[in-house]
Amino acid sequence: MNTSLICLQGLSGSGKTTVANFLASTLKMPVYHSDVERKALFGLSPSHNSRQAGMNIYTEEATRQTFQVLYSRAFEELSAGNSVIVDAAFLKHHERQTMRKLAEKAKARFLIVQCQADRQVMIDRINARRLQGDDPSEATGELVLGQEQWIEALTTDEIRMCIKVCTEDKSWQETLFQRTTHFLNGGLLSEK
């Protein structure tokens, strides 16, 4: 399998972390989660609620710092010859482009796995994990509505290196595993 950088992309509640953990387990790759890295930057454990701690860790600067950590982690893995998965929303083109350039610099394959789900399903997932109280994500249903407004669509080039996954589908794991391993072994995404 070729050295690869896989970026999960999608709105909050779309299933990115579930998909990232599935890929990490089946492909035996390390995974870095933006929610966990963001909290670590501020000295919080993954399950600690920043609002309860009186902190605002979702400023533009905190987001910039979080992505810088993710870029650094991915670069370290790729420099060591390891494939890596990065789990973040990647809503902005420049965030995805920086990861793509990182992969190119390391001569690694670059793949975007775009997670999708119905809006109400995403909101229901977010509400369920908020009730559990132990999830690193602090997303809300209102955030999903905002993200729908400011997400930057994948470019034509990005679509060529993207696998879309509807996490509501019963067979998403099998289909994703087959398409991902095909790509990571040098195949094109247009091939089945």
TrEMBL record:
Classification via InterPro entries: Cell-binding_unc_protein (IPR052732), P-loop_NTPase (IPR027417)
| Any matching Pfam family | AAA_33
Its name, as the record gives it, is Uncharacterized protein
